[in-house]
Amino acid sequence: xxxxxxxxxxxxxxxxxxxxxxxxxxxxxxxxxxxxxxxxxxxxxxxxxxxxxxxxxxxxxxxxxxxxxxxxxxxxxxxxxxxxxxxxxxxxxxxxxxxxxxxxxxxxxxxxxxxxxxxxxxxxxxxxxxxxxxxxxxxxxxxxxxxxxxxxxxxxxxxxxxxxxxxxxxxxxxxxxxxxxxxxxxxxxxxxxxxxxxxxxxxxxxxxxxxxxxxxxxxxxxxxxxxxxxxxxxxxxxxxxxxxxxxxxxxxxxxxxxxxxxxxxxxxxxxxxxxxxxxxxxxxxxxxxxxxxxxxxxxxxxxxxxxxxxxxxxxxxxxxxxxxxxxxxxxxxxxxxxxxxxxxxxxxxxxxxxxxxxxxxxxxxxxxxxxxxxxxxxxxxxxxxxxxxxxxxxxxxxxxxxxxxxxxxxxxxxxxxxxxxxxxxxxxxxxxxxxxxxxxxxxxxxxxxxxxxxxxxxxxxxxxxxxxxxxxxxxxxxxxxxxxxxxxxxxxxxxxxxxxxxxxxxxxxxxxxxxxxxxxxxxxxxxxxxxxxxxxxxxxxxxxxxxxxxxxxxxxxxxxxxxxxxxxxxxxxxxxxxxxxxxxxxxxxxxxxxxxxxxxxxxxxxxxxxxxxxxxxxxxxxxxxxxxxxxxxxxxxxxxxxxxxxxxxxxxxxxxxxxxxxxxxxx
Length: 667
Ligand code: PRX
Hints:
This protein has about 675 residues and is of the alpha/beta class.
C-alpha cells in the first residue's frame, strides 16, 4: 500500500477517483482491525494455514453444542462442507447466547413502521417471541428439514418468523413482498414448502398492498398440495379470507405457546435457508445456504467490515426478501448482540428526508444502504432544501456502507461529504446472494478508500481475476472475477439442481473447483484494488436488484400479442441499469398512441408475471430483431441502440441490417 497517496477530500472535483481517503485516526485507533499491517497479517495467516485460520474463528465466534472435528471436507468438491460434524443452532447463537452474555435487557430491534410508529424489542422479548412462534410452528407439525416460505412485510414479526424456523431446523425461503402471485407460486412449488407465513397486507409509502390475497392466488395455481398451513401476521387489519383448516392468525397460533423452546441442534451444514435469485436462464435458482459457515461469516463481517461495537446502533435499510436483509438484519446484527434499526416503507415517504430523520431520531451509528437510494436522495435534496441532509443532525454516524451495485464516484463523494460529513469511512461491500456475506470491501479502520472501488478481499477470501481459460491476469487488465478457495459462507448448491450449481459456478473450463462470481473486474496497477466492471452474464442490476434478461423475455412472450422479445440493460442515472425491451408483435408493428398503449399493457403484464421491479422502463417495437444469419439475436447491438448511441461495429454478419434504423428511436 506504500504507493497510495493520501490526498485530502477538500478538492471539489468529484471525478478524481484516484484520490484516496485514509481512515480517520480516531476510527483506526479503536477499530477491530486497525491498520493495513493487521489486515495483511490476517491474510497471511489464512494463506499459511487455511483450515486452521477458519477453525479458530469458528471456535471463537460460535456456540457449538457439539464441537466439530473436521473443518473443511473437499472430497465431493465443489460440494464443499464446513464444520459438518459440529452441532449448533443459529437462533440459539443469535438469542440465547446474548441472554447468557447479559444482553437480555438490551434493545435488539428498533422498528419504525411506514407511518412512523416505533416499537422497541429487547433481546429477552425477542427470544420470547421466537420461542413462542417456534413452538407454534411445531404444533402445526413443522419439523427439521421442512421448507417454509415467508412472504412478509418488513416487521419484527418477519425477523421472528425467520429466527423461529432456524430454531426448529426448518429451512426458510423468504420471497420479497414485491413479487407477483406467479413468482411466489413458482418458488413455493420449487422449494416444496409445507407452510407459508405472510401478513394480511403490507404498507409502503402510505399505501396498503395485499399480501394474503396474493398468497391465496398463488396457492390456486396448482401443485401446492404440500402447503398445509398459511400463518398470517395481522399488520393492518385489512379484509382477508381465511380458508378453514389451512389459514390461521399468527397471534392465535402463539397465544398459548410456552416461551421456552429447546433449539433443534443441527449439523453446521444443515440448510438454514434457500433464497431465490436470478440467473442467466429464465428460471430463478434457489441458492442454498448452510447454518454454521453462514453464521460464522455473518458474525465476522459484522466485526470486520462494520467494526461493530456494543454501543452501536446499526441500520441496514435492505428488505428481508433479499440476501442483505438475511445476513445484515436477521442474523449478523443479532448474533453479535447489536441494537439494530428495522424500517418499513420507502426512503421517500412521508418525504425524502425519511432516512436522515431516522438516523437523527434513533441515533444510528452505522448506516448501510444501496447506491440507488443514495442517488435518488441526492436528486430529492437538490430539489427540496427541507429534505437535504444538512437539515438533520447526523452526528451520531461513524460508518457508512454501500451494497448491491457499483457506486459511482459522484454518489460516493456526496455520501461521504453530506452524510458522513467527511469523517465516516464508507465500506463499499461487494458480494452476492451466493457468497452469504461480504467478499471484497474496505476495512474501515485500515483500508485507504478510493471512491468506486470495493478495494480488497477480506482475509481468507482468495479473489482473483482470470482470463477465459482460467489463467491469472496481471493488475491493470480486466477479466473474470473468481474465488480460488472455498469459504465457509459460500452457496452449497442450487436447491433441486446440483448440475446447474456445478456448471454455473464451478465450470470445468476453470478446473471445476474455482468459484465463478458472474462479474467482471479489474485491479488497479499500483494498489491492486479491485473495481467491479459489471455482470458478465445475462443478468441486469436494476436498483441493486438482480434481474435475469431471460426471465423478463419469457414473461413478455407469454403475452398473447408478443411474438418475440429481447431484453437488455441501459445505463440509468438513478437505478444504475434500466430494463429496455425490444419487442416484435404477432401483428403489425404499432406506432404512435397505439404503441404507447400496448407498451403500458406489456409493462403491467410483466409486473403481474414477475413483479413491479421487473417492469421494463422502455419498450421499443420492431418488425423483427437484429439477427445473425444463423438466427441468433445480436444483443450487443441492442445494447448500443438502447443507450442511444450510433452503431460503429461491423454489422456484415447481420441478416437484416435495415432493422437497426427502425429500432433506433425510443417510441
Ligand atoms: O454484480 C454484482 C452486484 O450485485 C450482484 C449480486 O447481486 P445479489 O446476489 O442480488 O446480491 C446483492 C447484495 C449483495 C453482484 O454479482 N454488486 C453487489 N455489490 C456490489 C456489486 N457491484 C459493484 N459493487 C458492489 N459493492
